[in-house]
Amino acid sequence: MARSKRELQEINAGSMADIAFLLLVFFLVTTTMDSSWGLSRKLPPPILENQPPPPPIKDRNVFTVLANANDQLLVEGELMEISELRAAAKEFIANPQKKEDLPQFKEVDVELLGPTMVSKQVISLQNDNGTSYNLYIQVQNELEAAYNELRDELAMEKFGVKYSVLEDIAQHSDLPSESEPAKAKVKAIRKVYPQRISEAEPKETGQ
After folding, report:
1. Could you point out which of 4, 95, 151, 186 has its C-alpha 20 to 30 Å from the C-alpha of 164?
2. Helices and strands, counts by H and E, the chain
3. In Å, how far are 33, 74, 192 from 180, measured between CA atoms?
4. What is the DSSP letter of 60?
5. What are the tens digits of pLDDT across the range 128-171?
6. How many Cβ atoms from other residues are within 10 Å of residue 63's Cβ?
7. Which long-range contacts (CB under 8 A, 24 or more apart) does 130-134 make?
8. Would strands 197-199 and 122-127 be described as parallel, antiparallel, or unpaired?
C-alpha cells in the first residue's frame, strides 16, 4: 500500500510581519540617533518699520571675518590662512592680556563660578556669493573649534573635566544625579564663553 504524502505546512507570514513591525517599533523607541549635520546659525532678524535701530557695537568688540569670491580669507581686513583662524579667534574671544584693541569685559554673576569677567566679543562673518562651500565650512569649523577649545580649557580649570565631556553627560546620561550637575556646569561655561557669531547674508563683495 503506497504511503500517502504528508502535506507541507504553510508558514504563517502574517505573524512574521507582526514580529518584524514590533521589532522596528522597539528599535525606533529605544535608539538615540545623534546627528552632526547642519550648522546652528541664525541670520540677524529684519529691521521692522518704526523699530529703533540696535545700539552700536564698539569696533574693538567685533571680530570681522570675510570669505571673498576668490576663496581668500580676510580677518580684520588682513589676509589670513585658514590654519591661523582658530588661534586668532581664541585670542580675540578670550583677550587674556586685556588689550585695549580687543574686546571689553563686563562682570557677570555666573552660577557655580560667582562674579566672572565676561568678554563682550562678537564674531561677524560675511561670505561672498562666489565663496566656495568648502571654504565656508572650513571657516565655520575653525570658529566653532575656537569656542570649544576655550570652553574645554575653562571647564578643566574649574571642574577638572573637559566641556565636551560635560556636554556628553548632560545630553546622554539617564541618571539625574549625573546629568543635572553636568547641565549646570555646561550652562556656567557657556555663560562665560557664549558663542556669538553674527552671520550676514552673502553678497557681492567684488574682492
Report:
1. 95
2. 5, 7
3. 21, 42, 19
4. G
5. 888 999 999 999 999 999 999 999 999 999 999 999 999 999 99
6. 23
7. 130/68, 130/69, 130/70, 130/204, 131/67, 131/68, 131/69, 131/71, 131/202, 132/71
8. parallel
| Position 27 pLDDT exceeds 80 | no
Measuring CA to CA, how many Å separate 40 from each of 168, 182, 199? 18, 22, 11
- The neighbour count for residue 61, using CB atoms within 10 Å, is 16
- The position carrying cell 553678497 is 203
Q: Which three cell numbers stand for residue 163?
A: 566641556
Backbone φ, ψ for residue 165 (5° rounding): -70, -45
Coil vs helix vs strand at 186: helix
How do residues 38-82 score in pLDDT, each as one tens digit?
445 555 555 556 666 656 678 999 999 999 999 999 999 999 999
Grid cell, residue 26, equals: 522597539
Residue 131 CB neighbour total at 10 angstroms: 21
Whether the Cβ atoms of residue 141 and residue 149 lie closer than 8 Å to each other? no
- The HSE-up count of residue 56 (CA atoms within 13 Å, CB side) is 3
- Distance separating alpha carbons of residues 145 and 139, to the nearest angstrom: 10
CA distance 131 to 74: 12
What is the distance of C-alpha 38 from the center of its chain?
10
pTM for this entry: 0.73
Residue type (1 letter), 1: M
